[in-house]
Amino acid sequence: MGLSKSWILQYSLPRSTEAQDSGNVSRLEAPWPYNIVRPNLAPDSLNADALLVHGYVNEAGKFESLGVAFPPDFQAAQFVLDALNQWQFRPAARNGLVQKVEVLLIIPKSARIEFPTARHLCTAGRKGADRRLRCSEA
Asked: What residue spans define the domains of the chain?
């Protein structure tokens, strides 16, 4: 209690890749952000419990095709997407080969998105099904 909530990055292979590889089981290594820019938003700019951003992390380690999935009427969407497009990742990998992954970035309202742009540390869950990426201030 009392701690701010972390940003969560969920990832998976795109559906087209999963269909091609049906039946094959292999380990997918998380995309790992090493340069993160967080947007400077007013505390009242988000009128929902969380901001959901959908897109991909490509083989070059950059976001692509980003869009705000929720809330649909978020007024600062382009501002947030411009900041996120500056992120750089170590790309996801499967069997040692770089992979494009589909991502959902969940930014809880209480995650302090109103603070000035800064670099942040991220950690990935490594146990069982909890392979989410969590970011917090450095």
From this structure: 7-19+28-137
